[in-house]
Structure formats: structure tokens, C-alpha cells
Amino acid sequence: QVQLVESGGGLVQAGDSLTLSCAASGRTSSTFAMGWFRQAPGKQREFVAALRWLGSTADYADSVKGRSAISRNYFNNTMNLQMNNLKPEDTAVYYCTIKLGGYYRLPKRDFEYDFWGQGTQVTVSS
User: Fold this and answer.
1) Residue 108 DSSP one-character state
2) Residues 11-24: pLDDT tens digits?
3) What 8-state DSSP symbol labels residue 55?
4) Is the pLDDT of residue 68 over 90?
5) 3-state DSSP assignment of residue 43
């Protein structure tokens, strides 16, 4: 299987920037896409961003579009999410996820992904 280890979460002030990282290990040779979801207290898990592992396709939720950038590092087998101009509504547990195998489009729903990290807390104060 695949193991995902997240890092980079923490407590920041509104307007700050933060970079989350996810390191993948295990049977990752068939990776199709990796992504980030988040879950705030009292809310369901929400899509944030995702990218196809090979190619140039990436997608973002409307709530973070224009102030977030998802990237990958093939050498380190890692995925990063840089978030700028953070807002209190960005406060959530952020989860890294991966989809294995062939697919026809970039997944944006949680049930389409195969493995998940443990989550990292991001808290944005006003």
C-alpha cells in the first residue's frame, strides 16, 4: 500500500502564507493524482486542490483559487500546497490523499481516492 506523511501545519495569522507538504512512500509507481482535502469543525471533508502526477493538469476549489499553488517533486516523491493570504475560514485539518491507477479525469471527490494521510492542523487567527 501507500503511506502518506504530512507536515507544515501550524498556527498562523490572517494574511500569512503557509506551505503544506506530503511525502508518499510504498507502492506509488502507479500514482495517477495526489490532492488535498480539509475538514473544519462541524463540516464535511472538502476538496482543496489536486494535480495529476504526470502532466500539467491541476485543479483548485473556488475558495482557494488564485491564492494557492499545488506542486510536486518527483525526486522526493512529495507534493506541496502553498497557501497565501490565509483567512480564518481556512482553519481546518488538512489531509493528503493519493489516487492509484489509470483514470480519465482529475478526481475532486474523496471517494475517488485510495489512501489518506493522518491530517495536519492549520489554524488561522484573526
Assistant:
1) -
2) 999 999 999 999 99
3) S
4) yes
5) coil
| Residues comprising the chain, all counted | 126
Q: Encode pLDDT of 84-100 as tens digits.
A: 999 999 999 999 999 99
Q: Side by side, which strands form the sheet with 18-26?
A: 2-7, 18-26, 78-83, 68-73
Residue whose cell numbers read 489531509: 95
Task: Tell me the pairing of strands 92-100 and 2-7.
Answer: unpaired
Q: Give the pLDDT score at 75.
A: 87
What's the pLDDT tens digit per position in 11-61? 999 999 999 999 999 999 999 999 999 999 999 999 999 999 998 899 999
Cell numbers placing 70: 499545488
Closest CA to 82 of 34, 57, 52, 49: 49
20 touches 94 (CB < 8 A): yes
Among candidate residues 80, 120, 82, 114, the one with its CA nearest the CA of residue 97: 114
Whether the CB-CB separation of 79 and 24 falls below 8 Å is answered with yes
SS3 sequence, 57-68?
CEEECCCCCCCE
